[in-house]
Design goal:
alpha/beta; six-stranded mixed sheet; five-stranded mixed sheet; 27% strand; binds adenosine-5'-diphosphate; binds magnesium ion
């Protein structure tokens, strides 16, 4: 019986049967008119503050100094929850948060299914890259038909990239500090996010291939967008206007 329930809880959002399993979304939906916004600490939080400010939303505590995971705002019916970057889509998908902000990296890796993604916020911009130890002859070893060991937090993105090149890879899944892997012989290369390249240089690594550009997206729970349209749509509109202004040449 327990096993049967585990099976029910393992929801595959890419499955055509997804519709059959949608119940949990309704169970956790914030039924009242409180808006819950899911953010991750660090650069996404920091770069989201100006967007929230433009919408008249002020977060009243600093997640870097507060240990609280639910932060009040200047609106009684709006709160911010602080979750791990890769958990933001999960909170929004189930309706535990009405909307949130997640990196494209996280959305590609997790599939992004079941979410409304109305807006590229153009914040937390970086690139998904392949990097190796300086001097490593990547072109030679990455020709079609060869085999490489890749350490990464993004196994799906890595698999897809090397499949397109016809390069066989063994994935070594890591949760952080990918830069270390080639230095100590754990892998030939890493697939990771790079912005300035400072961390790569500090560790004698170099980027050798650009996989895709990454920025953060607004993600909205589909049911919340319908049920709380009057609250959410104006925020989306202000975000869109502010992003356009921020990115004017
Ligand atoms: P975590 O440590 O929880 O895995 P990070 O704080 O490193 O998450 O990254 C959170 C998000 O910020 C990532 O999902 C990505 O979209 C973005 N990001 C990560 N690294 C960089 C970077 N070097 N420059 C800009 N944005 C980044
Ligand atoms: Mg990090």
């Amino acid at each position: 019986m327990g096993v049967f329930f585990l099976f029910l809880l393992k929801i595959d959002y890419n499955s055509p049967f997804y519709g059959l399993f949608r119940q949990p979304e309704r169970l956790t939906m914030n039924e009242n008119n409180t808006l819950t916004i899911a953010l991750s600490k660090g650069r996404i939080f920091d770069e989201t503050l100006p967007l929230l400010a433009a919408a008249g939303i002020e977060v009243l505590e600093n997640p870097e100094t507060s240990r609280k995971l639910i932060l009040p705002t200047n609106h009684d019916n709006m709160r911010v929850i602080i979750v791990r970057a890769s958990d933001v889509p999960t909170y929004v998908r189930y309706g535990a948060a009405d909307f949130g902000i997640a990196g494209k990296d996280v959305l590609i890796e997790s599939g992004g299914g079941g979410l409304y993604q109305p807006l590229d916020l153009k914040i937390a911009q970086c690139k998904m890259m392949v990097a190796v130890k300086q001097g490593f002859d990547y072109q030679k070893v990455s020709s079609a038909g060869s085999r490489l060991r890749i350490a990464t937090k993004y196994p799906n993105i890595a698999r897809e990239h090397f499949a397109q090149k016809g390069v066989h890879i063994d994935i070594i899944k890591l949760y952080g500090s990918m830069e270390l892997a080639p230095l100590v012989g754990l892998s030939d290369a890493i697939v990771d996010l790079v912005s300035t390249g400072g961390t790569l240089r500090a560790n004698n690594l170099e980027a050798v291939e650009h996989i895709c550009d990454i920025s953060s997206r607004l993600i909205v729970n589909k049911a919340a967008l319908k049920l709380k349209h009057a609250q959410i749509q104006p925020i989306i509109d202000v975000f869109a206007k502010t992003v356009a202004q921020q990115n004017q040449a």
